[in-house]
Amino acid sequence: MKSICSIAALVFCLLLMAAPNAPHAQPARATPEIFKQFSEHVVKIEVVETGSAAKASLGTGFFADGRGRIVTNYHVISKLVHSPERYRLEITDVTGQTGVATILGVDVVYDLAVLRSERRPKGFLALDSKAVEQGTRLYSLGHPRDLGLTIVEGTHNGLLKHTLYPKIHFTGSLNPGMSGGPTLTQAGNVVGVNVATEGNQISFLVPAERATALLHRTAQVEKPAPASFLAEVGEQILTNQTRYLAGMFEPGTPRVALGPYDLPTRPTEVFHCWADAVRRKELPYASVSHDCSTDDYIFVSSEQSSGIVRFFHQLLSTDELNPLRFFALYSGQFQAGNAAVFGTEEEVTPFRCRTRNVSSTAGKLKTVLCARQYLKLPGLYDAVFKAATLGSRNAGLVTTLSLSGVSFDNVQTVSRRYLENIKWRR
């Protein structure tokens, strides 16, 4: 046994001695070296209100070619898209030199924009869409809360699963102001664009290939009209909603049982569903709920989001309330306000509603469809569809579907499919 251990120790020592001379060994680059080499390609982006010369929003961008084109997030420059007469763009490099920039193109669905700087950069960062192994060390650059250019280390944890829009899970601490900045490998290749964070070292990147696609689409653009971008935002949202709503709530949708009702759940893999129940001795009724929604959304403006689908089933039942008191409780749930959707009076009209009673072979329902129109993005609507089952003295179902940023044709089509999926168990 002693001789075996000695031989093993000798082999281990020989391996250690040989390792420094291995022909393929690549020493890890230090973070200060990475920052020093690549920070000069990163800029701070400020959206400035022209009347007061005060900054209205702050973000980060990076040079993506020698022509002075800069990649950033759409949400960083969205104020300029919505009100080009009120705002302008300023960029500041790592040395403190400032300049102006203009928008060349936007991709609101993936939260990206391409800008052009008046001056040509000394160099730029290369976008790399090759697959990166989970656990690979990455380095994110940006301007968190306008504290100066910062580098953040983290790891690549792959693409998120079951999302409408591909995102890379980056385990690192991104903060407001870093949006639009690059996240690099040790070699300096951009694998993603900083876009969002949930805190606790959970952050997200737009994959580099989406930025590459926008760069290609804007390759021949020289001087677009500033007012054209808002119309393009609306067209992109319209095209996108057709994609993710196609086939939703068609026959074959998964089902869930709530009391005497057979209901839809998780119509596509991008939905996440939760369930809960309230049964307390001090309450004269019980409530069982089932809630499904998409986690993704499209940033339209600081006050408005789009591209969200949510539906909510609530079963109310009682053994204690008389029919009159239960009806009052049940009606209150049906008449409750519309689900939370965002948008100011400058961006959306008030909701307009239509109520009707519907009969099917299984039972009767009362329905209401409410919709409001986007003022700046013609052809887009938010909608809330509600249905309540009728006929029972001590139990009832209220179900609600909310859609945001969809055409009115899809409001009607998806609401109809949803209603057809509300059934009674036999």
Compute the gyration radius: what is it? 27 Å
Q: pLDDT average, as an integer?
A: 90
Strand order of the largest sheet: 15-16-19-23-22-21-20
Principal-axes geometry comes out as elongated
| Fraction in helix | 10-25%
How many H/I helical runs? 7
- In total, how many beta strands? 24
β-sheet strand percentage? 35-45%
CATH fold description of the largest domain: Thrombin, subunit H
Describe it for me?
- This protein is an alpha+beta fold and 426 residues long.
- The chain folds into two domains: 31-220, Thrombin, subunit H (Beta Barrel), CATH 2.40.10; 245-424, 3-Layer(aba) Sandwich (Protein Transport Mog1p, Chain A).
- The protein has seven helices and 24 strands.
- The protein has helices at 2-18, 31-38, 74-82, 208-217, 228-245, 323-335, 408-420, and strands at 42-49, 54-63, 69-72, 87-92, 98-107, 112-117, 137-142, 150-159, 168-171, 182-184, 190-199, 202-207, 255-258, 261-264, 271-278, 286-294, 298-301, 304-306, 309-317, 352-359, 364-373, 381-390, 395-406, 423-424.
- The chain has a seven-stranded antiparallel beta sheet with strand order 15-16-19-23-22-21-20, sandwiched between helices.
- The longest helix is centred in the middle third of the chain and has 18 residues, at 228-245.
- The radius of gyration is 27 Å and the shape is elongated.
What topology emerges from the helices and strands here?
Layout (H helix, E strand, L loop, with lengths): L1 H17 L12 H8 L3 E8 L4 E10 L5 E4 L1 H9 L4 E6 L5 E10 L4 E6 L19 E6 L7 E10 L8 E4 L10 E3 L5 E10 L2 E6 H10 L10 H18 L9 E4 L2 E4 L6 E8 L7 E9 L3 E4 L2 E3 L2 E9 L5 H13 L16 E8 L4 E10 L7 E10 L4 E12 L1 H13 L2 E2 L2
